[in-house]
Write a sequence for this structure.
């Protein structure tokens, strides 16, 4: 029991989880309600943000970042609407949009991993490219997706598991599988020290390529979900998602320097931001006051969690370095 307590205490996700639960109780106190319908609505509304947070957390863990994920969400949404408007079936449109999103992530990975261009500069440039393509395809909000798509998204698989939960599980399960393989420790090792990663024979290019492709896939899932919520297209729908997802990851204990934290922290960080917005809106403040209060609480949340670190992963990486150093000798 004592060992479990120590592990929980060192868990980098703990501050974000505590913040989310605390603000959830505050919301319940303000609104006076917490029903199953609210929970379902809360999860379905915030599934896109959670998926993007998972993707961006993965890129930060390897010592990089990706500010183009919001644009990939937008591009996915616009592609679905455009293809449906050209009489493609919804399933075909969704699958093709997801393919394009994954290829967009692969493109980022090629520039960052193979050509070794700075991740921030690369994804800033590609963000503009993806946004430009979305505006070219759909200059103004519009289009329509059949409403049965929204009905499907808000239904339950086998009348048990909400579809939004399954959509979150898709990138999450892939990430957890990564972490069970040697790839996982190598990804964290890359984030901790890229020079040692190269010296240890870690395939840095392959890791960066795969992680950014994964981030594109996660953003594609987010775009699919947000399209189901809107049943329409909007060439600006993902504009704020990249920065919000980075904030969520940092609140969740993912270090911007890389090699520390995990996607669970990004998930709870995203949930914290979402419940924070709900609280501010429920307080019936003016829009200016809402933005100010949101920013102050967000800043406090970052300060409370930025020092969180995953000691277990650090120890594993240290052992990896020692093992590699011993082999080199």
């Amino acid at each position: 029991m004592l060992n479990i307590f120590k592990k929980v205490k060192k868990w980098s996700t703990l501050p974000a989880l505590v913040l989310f639960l605390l603000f959830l109780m505050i919301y319940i106190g303000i609104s006076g309600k917490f029903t199953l319908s609210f929970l379902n609505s809360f999860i379905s509304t915030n599934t896109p943000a959670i998926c993007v947070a998972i993707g961006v957390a993965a890129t930060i863990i390897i010592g990089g970042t990706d500010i183009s994920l919001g644009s990939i969400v937008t591009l996915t949404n616009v592609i679905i609407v455009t293809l449906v408007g050209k009489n493609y079936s919804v399933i075909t449109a969704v699958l093709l949009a997801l393919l394009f999103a994954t290829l967009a992530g692969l493109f980022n990975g090629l520039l960052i991993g193979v050509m070794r261009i700075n991740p921030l500069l690369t994804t800033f440039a590609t963000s503009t490219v993806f946004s430009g393509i979305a505006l070219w395809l759909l200059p103004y909000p519009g289009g329509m997706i059949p409403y049965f798509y929204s009905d499907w998204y808000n239904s339950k698989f086998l009348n048990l598991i909400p579809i939004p939960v399954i959509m979150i599980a898709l990138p999450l399960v892939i990430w957890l599988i990564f972490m069970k393989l040697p790839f996982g420790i190598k990804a964290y090792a890359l984030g901790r020290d890229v020079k040692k990663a190269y010296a240890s024979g870690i395939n840095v290019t392959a890791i960066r390529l795969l992680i950014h492709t994964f981030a594109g896939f996660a953003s594609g899932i987010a775009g699919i979900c947000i399209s189901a919520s809107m049943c329409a297209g909007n060439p600006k729908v993902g504009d704020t998602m990249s920065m919000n997802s980075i904030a969520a990851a940092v609140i969740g204990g993912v270090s911007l320097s890389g090699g520390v934290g995990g996607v669970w922290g990004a998930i709870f960080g995203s949930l914290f931001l979402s419940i924070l917005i709900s609280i501010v809106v429920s307080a019936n403040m003016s829009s200016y006051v809402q933005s100010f209060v949101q920013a102050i609480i967000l800043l406090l949340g970052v300060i409370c969690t930025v020092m969180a670190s995953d000691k277990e992963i650090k120890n594993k990486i240290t052992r990896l370095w020692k093992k590699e150093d011993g082999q080199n000798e």
About this structure: The chain has a mean pLDDT of 85. The longest strand covers residues 156-157. The radius of gyration is 20 Å. Residues 10-328 form a domain with the ABC transporter involved in vitamin B12 uptake, BtuC fold (CATH 1.10.3470).
